[in-house]
Design brief:
CATH topology of the largest domain: Metallo-beta-lactamase, Chain A
CATH architecture of the largest domain: 4-Layer Sandwich
Helix content: 25-40%
Structural class: alpha/beta
CATH class of the largest domain: Alpha Beta
Largest sheet: 7 strands, mixed
Number of strands: 18
Radius of gyration: 22 Å
Strand content: 25-35%
Strand order of the largest sheet: 6-5-4-3-2-1-18
Oligomer: single chain
Number of helices: 10
CATH superfamily of the largest domain: Ribonuclease Z/Hydroxyacylglutathione hydrolase-like
Distance between the termini: 6 Å
């Protein structure tokens, strides 16, 4: 299962209701931050989440997406955490993090692994038994990445079928889950007869980019898409500002095939998302879209 909390849904400026960008993602006991804007650690506290972060994935080093990194390192430092914090980001990330560490007087040694990424094509960053994380470059005014987190498909036991055949649970279930036939009371149980494949969920996080089709192969087929919609439809210079308006974000969402889409990174020029939602409904009907879409508030939570 993937659990998400929207810690910040604003853009360049925080507002009274919206914090700088960050999404808290929990998967298989691992805690990640997708971006880490100013005030992220306070939002984590308000959301009742653990501040013990394993990975921070920075899309780019504009301040609204990264000013919270120093605070997160400080908190882990004061907690005297010995865990290794991985910080992924575009080229230049190593220098950016080292400059942050040099600028502050931390109490203890900081155990941080800096991982700069240049991904002209989709690049695999993490791949274990449970999930993978990948990234790709996107077109912004500075070096910028989009990220994707994908659960692996898993083999699960058909519990009801076992129960109907009076087969009691035991250690042999592990072998069935691993795709092996087993013997039970002298009878051969074929794993294909007693298991099924559960398709893993996937989520893409795409923010701060121009409207270009190059992002489509990366987001194609994800279950959930978190994408920026910085401006309303009447803002015609989104391309010049290296951002998306709601119409452009809707088109990418439709072509991605995602089942659920969350629009974030709302410009501070809008007091609320009413205009965005009106525009979204218009283009939704025009494009004959079939997905669910949302404009999340800060601290909203979802589970995949």
């Amino acid at each position: 299962m993937i659990d998400l909390t929207f810690l910040g849904t604003s853009s360049a400026f925080p507002t009274a209701k919206r914090n700088h960008p960050s999404v808290y993602l929990s998967i298989e006991g691992t805690r990640m931050l997708l971006d880490c804007g100013e005030g992220t650690q306070r939002q984590i506290r308000k959301a009742g989440l653990s501040p013990s972060i394993d990975y921070i994935f920075i899309t780019h080093w504009h301040g609204d997406h990264s000013l919270g990194v120093g605070g997160m390192i400080q908190s882990l430092n004061m907690m005297k955490s010995n865990k290794l914090l991985y910080i992924f980001g575009p080229s230049g990330t190593k220098e950016s993090v080292e400059n942050i560490i040099k600028s502050y007087k931390f109490y203890n040694n900081v155990n941080v692994k800096k991982v700069p990424i240049n991904a002209v094509k989709e690049r695999l960053l993490i791949n274990n038994e449970k999930y993978s994380v990948s990234a790709i470059n996107v077109k912004h005014s500075v070096k910028c990445l989009a990220y994707k987190v994908s659960e692996h498909d898993s083999r699960n036991i058909l519990v009801d079928k076992l129960s109907k055949m009076n087969i009691k649970p035991g250690e042999f279930l592990k072998d069935l889950k691993n795709g092996k036939d087993v013997l039970y009371n002298g009878k051969k149980l074929k794993y294909k007869d007693f298991t099924y494949i559960k398709k893993g969920k996937s989520i893409a996080y795409v923010t701060d980019l121009r409207f270009e089709n190059t992002i489509l192969p990366f987001v194609k087929g994800v279950d959930t898409l978190i994408i920026e919609s910085t401006f309303a439809a009447d803002f015609k210079r989104s391309y010049d500002f290296f951002h998306l308006n709601i119409n452009e974000a809707m088109k990418i969402a439709k072509d991605s095939g995602a089942k659920n889409v969350y629009f974030v990174h709302t410009s501070q020029r809008y007091d609320n998302t009413d205009l965005m939602q009106k525009d979204a409904q218009n283009v939704f009907s025009k494009l004959k879209c079939k997905f669910n879409y949302y404009f999340p508030d800060d601290l909203d939570k979802i589970s995949l």
